[in-house]
Structures are given as C-alpha cells and as structure tokens.
Amino acid sequence: MRYFDVLIIGSGVAGLSAALTAAEQGLEVCVLSKEERFEESNSYYAQGGIVYKGENDSPSVLEKDIITAGDNANYVAAVRMIASEGPDLVKEYLIDKIGIPFCRDDSGDLDRTQEAAHSVRRIVHVKDETGKAIETHFFEYVKRFRNIHLIGHHSAIDIITNCHHSSDFQEKYREPRALGVYALDGISGEVKAFFANAVILATGGVGNIFLHTSNPVGAMGDGVAMAYRAGANIINAEYVQFHPTILYHRDIKRFLISESLRGEGAKLMNRKGDYFMRRYNSDLKDLAPRDEVARAIYREIEIEGDGFVFLDTSNMNDVDIAERFPGIYARCMEVGIDITKDAIPVVPAAHYFCGGIKVDLNGRTSIPSLYAIGESACTGVHGANRLASVSLLEALVYGLRVGRYVSGKLKPVKKSLMRSIPSWIYPDDEEEFDPLLISNDLLTIQMTMWNYAGIIRTRRRLLRAMSDLSYLSHRIERFYKTARISRDIIELRNAILVGGVIVKSAFGNKKSIGCHFIR
Predict the structure, then answer these.
(1) Strand, helix or coil for residue 435
(2) Cα 354 to Cα 360: distance, rounded to the nearest angstrom
(3) Quick one: DSSP state of residue 454?
C-alpha cells in the first residue's frame, strides 16, 4: 500500500501538466504509467502542433473556430476558457518555463502553420514532431521535482471507492469518493493498492478499439472504463473523430500524415487524378473539418472500390517538404515513398475521442475526489468534432488548472478507511489463457467497431454491433474473473466496455452531427 496527496494515471501532456502544478503547490504526487517508457502516450505522437496566437487573431476568433468545427455542440464556457487562457499558458509554461524548441522564421518569430477549419495561421510547431518535443521536454522538466514520483510498468485496473470496496458496511451508505486504484505491477505480476486524497485520470483515448487507428497500442479507453465501472457519468461517447490521412502501407501501421501538409498546400486526389474535395466542400476544399474530409475519402474509396486515396504534394511549391516535415519524409522513405515527388497513399483512421468522462471546468467528475483530464475527459471543448491542434492545448490548460485546483480541495483519506480496503483477491485457480484467444477477441471488437460504428454508421449496423459486443462481453468477463491477471486481459475488459458505451450512445443519437454520421 502506498499513499500520496495526488495520484495521476497517465503520463501524457495532461498528466504531466497536472503533476507539475500540484508539485509546485508542495503536494506529494505519484504518476502511474502502464508503459515502460514514460513518454509513450497519445501526446507523443501528435505531429501538427499546438494552438497559439496568430496575426489578426483573438480569443473570440478562436472560440468561433472551435465551436464551428464542433458543430455548435460545445460547452461554451469551456471553449471560452481555453480560447482566453490557453495561448498565454503556452507562452508561460511551454515557451518560457520548459523551453520547447518551437520552430521560428528567419526573423526569429515563432513560425505558425494552418490546419483545417482554422481561420488564421495560429499553430506553433516543432516541424512534424511537435508532440514528441513537448512530451520529452516536459518529462525531463518534471523529473527535477523530488515530490513527483514516476512509476512505470503499472496498469491501473479499477478505481478504489469507499462504497464499492470498503469492508466497513457503513461506507455503503456514505457519499462515494475515490480513494485510489488497484494497479498491476507488470514486472512482478503483483496487484498493489495506491491510495491518494485525489485521483486524476489522464489515460488518453480509445483509438485502439478500432481496426484502423493513429493511436498507440495502449489507447484502450482505460480511464473511461474505470470511471464507468465506478459510477461516473460518461457523455458524448458517439463522437469519435477519424483522422482523414493515415499512411496506407502493409509494412507501416498507425502512422499519421499530418493535416499540416494540407495546410501548406497538399491536396487529396483519387486514383483517377481528380482533386475530389471540391465536390464535397466547394469553399474549404481540403481544409474542410476533419469529419467532412474523412467521410469524403470513405465515399471515394467506396465509389472507386480502391483501398485508399492519394495526398498529392506537388502543389506545395513554396515549402521545402523534407525540411519542414522530416519525420514524415523519413518514415515514408523507409518504404520507398519520396513525398517530395510521390503522392502519398492514405486512408482515414480512428484518431480522437471527443466524448469521455463528464467533468466541470475544474476537471471534477460526478464522483468526489475523482478528476479527469485530457482525452479521457469530456470537457465539452470539442463538442461533436475536434478542431485540429486544440487537443494539446486542452490537455495543457486543464492539466495545469486541475493540478492547482486539487491543492485547495484535498480531503485526506482516513487511515481507518484505508485499512478497511481489502488486498486484491486473486482467483483460487488461476488459468493461463492462450494469448491467441485474447488477441482474437480484441480483433473481433476492433472489426465490429470499424465496420458497424465507424466513419459512416447506420441504425442496422449499430444494432448488430450492440448484439455482438454484448455476447462477447460475457465471455471476456469470465476470462477476467478466472485468468491470471495481465495487461492484455485488463485492456480487453476495458475495450469491450468502452466499445459498448460508444455504440449505445451512437444508437441513442439519431441525428447526424459532427463526427457522428448516420446514413
């Protein structure tokens, strides 16, 4: 048993931001990551950039762009806070305090790029590896704090609450509160209890429950699943954003082709050589919102019967492509695609979860002492569809805000209450399951979500998805209760739960809005 002031699950930009400001208030902070390498997160793989300030820009202009992209389903107060506070926090923390090496132009000013649905060039970047730069520099910065305890290779299993876990029968009648988590030590195989006065979920997205995704393999919706089982409110789960352009190649999976290429002039083209986006959005064309572009590509693939379309870079005459996009250039060259000359084969893939654990402006969930930030939370900033490069901004703003907020709201966990929480109960006869069975169940979930609850949905497909996932969930729960616990089984259990939540939310919303499209 270990005890901290603040326990943060997840080590992306949101989690590290919360750890930083909580530690600055003098709190003892623990950051748990299921990864061996702490930087491994959705944040690390963000290519394009982070929203800052542009010429002829203002908080009201940014607010309008975010709400327009979100199809007017956004929480206006949250958008207003992000638009007014966000750019200043980028300067204070990322530029001045941590020293992220954002690219600059010849005069020394920050270089700004543009992405789809932004009305001005306001996105600062580190070429095409912005997330990697922010995450690695941020991690090095927080390592300086002796009161931040970084523990890797631990997979959170469930949130410990007084009502669900205490052996004191009276706790069932008291107000619920989060006390910590049970977590699996990936090296020893032991399940440990971590207690804290405040628990912050920063576990990232859900992309890996879909067959095609830009997300790393760990993005299984862990935080959403844990919060759901604990009784927290989940909202807007139908809004799963699909990025229009993921590299289509048999030897490379999950590699994002940044929207910034289209911001710098690249155009989508079908295999007949037609720049088709003008047929779907005559005004914005290739810089239309992501949901429109993803559906357009999906339709082109359906119409032509081909497995992909092209991103043509021949229009980027004023850009040194290899210098501006070195990561994409190098990765594509590995498989013989020279993006300075060759069109890039691309397909859409699951990218960002706009829904999640319902929180207020201070990251509070419906369970006292439990907070959520980053992609696992639904702040309402993104509405029905995320505006490009706002997610890193949201992670930073809410992470910093919640880290500060909890310092004044801590309610210490009584030692008697901690003692009433039992140790993890292992099955009497642990079974060692064949890994192939687990991987096949996950593949079934991924195919079901992609085919029936993907870019274009129908009522009939969603009904089939609900039926298939419901059947599979019983089998997986039996797995979980009898198997020797492992990261794979924990993630499988979370994937089937989150898949079901998304499908039910999608079926309950009969209106096409944002990235939830019903045909």
Answers:
(1) helix
(2) 15
(3) S
C-alpha–C-alpha distance, residues 298 and 295, integer Å: 5
Contact 417, 74 (CB under 8 A): no
Place of tokens 């805000």: 401
Write out 106-126 in H/E/C secondary structure.
CCCCECEECCCCCCCCCEECC
> DSSP letters along 271-325, please?
TTS--THHHH-TTTGGGS-HHHHHHHHHHHHHHHT-S-EEEE-TT-TTS-HHHHS
- The length of the chain, given as a count of residues: 519
Burial of residue 495 (CB within 10 Å: 0-12, 13-18, 19+) is buried
d(CA 268, CA 257): 12
Let me know: does 409 contact 178? Beta carbons within 8 Å: no
Q: Tens place of pLDDT for every residue, the chain, 519 residues?
A: 799 999 999 999 999 999 999 999 999 999 999 999 999 999 999 988 999 999 899 999 999 999 999 999 999 999 999 999 999 999 999 999 999 999 999 999 999 998 888 999 999 999 999 999 999 999 999 999 999 999 999 999 999 999 999 999 999 999 999 999 999 999 999 999 999 999 999 999 999 999 999 999 999 999 999 999 999 999 999 999 999 999 999 888 889 998 889 989 999 999 999 999 999 999 999 998 888 999 999 999 988 777 899 999 998 988 999 999 999 999 999 999 999 999 999 999 999 999 999 999 999 999 999 999 999 999 999 999 999 899 999 999 999 999 999 999 999 999 999 999 999 998 877 777 788 889 999 999 999 999 999 999 999 999 999 999 999 999 999 889 888 999 999 999 999 999 999 999 999 999 999 999 998
Look up residue 159 and give its two tokens.
Answer: 């949130």
SS3 199: strand
β-pair type (178-185, 191-201): antiparallel
Angle at 363 between CA 372 and CA 496, to 5 degrees: 25
Domains and CATH numbers, the chain: 244-350 (3.90.700.10), 435-508 (1.20.58.100)
Task: Give which of 498, 470, 500, 479 is closest to 435, Cα–Cα.
Answer: 479
What distance in Å separates the CA atoms of residue 207 and residue 499, rounded to the nearest whole number? Answer: 10
- Options 112, 122, 290, 493, the catalytic residue: 290
290 catalytic residue (yes or no): yes
Rg (CA), the chain: 22
CA 408 and chain centroid, separation: 28
CB count in 10 Å sphere of residue 318: 7
Distance CA 138, CA 150 (A): 13
